[in-house]
Amino acid sequence: MDAWIVALIVAAVAALAVWGYYAEQKRRQALRQWAARHGLSFTPARDPSIDERFPFECLRRGHRRYAYNRLAGPWHGYELLGFDYHYETYSYDSKGRRRTHHHHFSAVILKLPLRMRPLLIRPEGFLDKLAEFIGFDDIDFESVEFSREFYVKSPDRRFAYDVLHPRTMEFLLQSPRFALQFDGGWAIAYRSGRFRPEEFGQAADVIRGVVERLPRYLVDELKRQGG
Fold this sequence. Notes:
Shape: globular
Order of helices and strands: HEHEEEHHEHHEHH
Helix content: 40-55%
Distance between the termini: 64 Å
Strand content: 25-35%
Number of strands: 6
Structural class: alpha+beta
């Protein structure tokens, strides 16, 4: 390879690294300002323990997992933890050489005032539709629009129906789309790619919207059973 081509490649890689550094600094500043406006703390430091502290599958993907750009504090009566998340996966070429793939997404976790049974609600994708076609159904609802737009999974179907009554289904149809998971005293909202600063608040509010629409009889039942 000619020397000038090598030099061009090196320069392009260096320019990309510099651009990435400044883009990350700009993001951190935007997150710090948004957190300050809402009374939240902000730290860019990495935390590799998130996957051990919370019961969510999305935090256990791949390797070298850690949260960073963390926001924390009270949010309308709840305790909020927001963060960007990183994990790695690997692939190999025909000569056995390993390539590392870096994945990033954002999430918000809220501490709940009661313990929920496991429930996953997320926008339905192509693979979900394919799985349904070959017989692997999710939980369907009377609302055709909601069943078309969302994939719902829970080991307790009655609980899913109790949570997702018509008013909550309408709320979710009108809300920004996030994957939601409830388990025990925690709930998480996330999606691929990193949130804009204001989307951390939107994600938290979608969780709140579901919890605060729980029927009174279900709230009483969960409090009696402790879960």
